[in-house]
Amino acid sequence: MTAIFTREGNLFRATELAGGLWSPDMLQGSATTALMVREVERLAVASGFAVRRLTFDLWRPAGLRAYRVETGMLRDGRKAKTIQVRLLDGETEIGRCTALLTAQGSESPADPFSKVTGADAAPETGTPPPAFAQKWSRYFQNVSVRLIEGALEKPGPAAAWMRLDVAMVEGEANTPLVQAVQAADFSSGVGQIVDMREWTFINPEISLYFFRPPEGEWILIRSRTRAGANGAGLTMATLSDRQGPFAEVLQAMTFERREAQAQAS
């Protein structure tokens, strides 16, 4: 099996490679968001507009089943368009992507106030995570990871290059946007601040803001997480390619102690 999804007519069947961190029988968030962004990208290319914001609401757990994707235009303007993509399991909506597209200009102003940063170390110079960390999910086993800062198995900020090595949809090449979106879902894991033997953490949504299109296969995630009150948290990440940063990511986090979770179930 060499793809996360296979086609069944107008449906997309999740393979076992789509299995996620908390259950091998449930979709990895990366698979859910990347399947929806394929439709966003198709509509953006057709309109000549640029993808500027993607907000994914992940409403229900999604099993390894066949899904339908529906699109709709919420606002059609000369300078900005808002579209939505719905992911459906039969008649049940599993998640939704709301995307902002904007018209492309001929030039951009120089930013004299931006901080000058050194070039990030290339993925070829990074180190892979420990074997046990790479086995956290079936999906993750098909993602190449090269750490240049921090560690996945230890709490704290980190920076890691990632590349999905199998097709998101059978017979299709993964575009840079698909690579970026599937990588973005790992932001909370890269910047996790808790011992996963004691806590679970989920993000019921994720938003990406683009200031240029991504390029290439490798995506660098530099992320950090802050814990707040009553189980709330926020993960913030910068996405880069070999040319430098291209997007910012925000994830609203929910933390729960495993002991409390076991007592509730």
Automatic annotation (TrEMBL):
Record's protein name: Thioesterase family protein
Superkingdom assignment: Bacteria
InterPro entries, alphabetized: ACOT8-like_C, Acyl-CoA_hotdog, HotDog_dom_sf, TesB_ACOT8-like_N
Pfam assignment, any one: 4HBT_3C
SUPFAM superfamilies registered for this protein in UniProt: Thioesterase/thiol ester dehydrase-isomerase (SSF54637)
Domain Acyl-CoA thioesterase-like N-terminal HotDog residues, every copy: 25-100
Annotated Acyl-CoA thioesterase-like C-terminal domain residues: 123-253
